[in-house]
Amino acid sequence: MAIERTFSIIKPDATRRNLTGKINAKLEGAGLRIVAQRRVWMTTAQAEQFYGVHRERPFFRDLVTFMTSGPVVVQVLEGENAVAANREVMGATNPANAAEGTIRKEFAESIEANSVHGSDSAENAATEIAYFFAGTDIVG
Ligand code: ADP
Ligand code: MG
């Protein structure tokens, strides 16, 4: 077990409903420490690049439109096995399949407007963190 970092986004559906604090409480309750955090309104170009791996998926255009529909909160989370711990507290992509107590079960509106993003591997976490934060922004 190692201390690692992962990247998280509180999505526009959640900021619109003023859920940043409630979601942060869930993250902290799961043993994750918020070591960097900033509110940003992504441009279309930023969202397209961030979700570039999904470019060929049928939902890509809608996803970019959704992610640029309002402000998001970008975060770096730190803790034991942070990537897996965050994926666990997030819950399944489709809130209909998300376990009780997870963020998506409690807060997500739909498979698209599912309140949070979390990196799916340590390698992708490093890329995603670097996309939004300088090393000096992260205070562990
Ligand atoms: P996750 O966010 O759980 O890692 P993916 O990486 O597969 O899920 O998808 C990225 C995001 O794209 C999802 O969080 C969701 O906002 C959106 N998405 C995924 N699948 C669909 C779908 N079938 N229809 C609409 N939006 C989707
Ligand atoms: Mg993903």
**Count of separate DSSP helical elements:** 7
Strand order of the largest sheet: 2-3-1-4
Q: How far apart are the first and last residues' alpha carbons, in Å? A: 18 Å
The portion of residues forming beta strands comes to: 15-25%
Bound molecule types: adenosine-5'-diphosphate, magnesium ion
Mean pLDDT: 98
Low-pLDDT runs of 5+ residues are: none
Helix coverage percent of residues?
A: 25-40%
**H/E element sequence:** EHHEHHEHHEH
Q: What radius of gyration results from the CA coordinates?
A: 14 Å
- What structural category characterises the helix and strand content? alpha+beta
Largest sheet: 4 strands, antiparallel
Number of strands: 4
**What's the shape?**
globular
Notes on the structure:
It is globular, with a radius of gyration of 14 Å. It is 39% helix and 20% strand. The two termini are 18 Å apart. It has a four-stranded antiparallel sheet with strand order 2-3-1-4. With 140 residues, the protein is of the alpha+beta class. The chain is built from seven helices and four strands; from the N terminus they run βααβααβααβα. The chain has helices spanning 12-16, 20-29, 44-50, 60-67, 82-90, 103-107, 122-132, and strands spanning 3-10, 33-40, 72-80, 116-118. The structure holds adenosine-5'-diphosphate and magnesium ion (MG). Residues 54, 59, 63, 93, 111-112, 114, 117, 120 line the site of adenosine-5'-diphosphate.
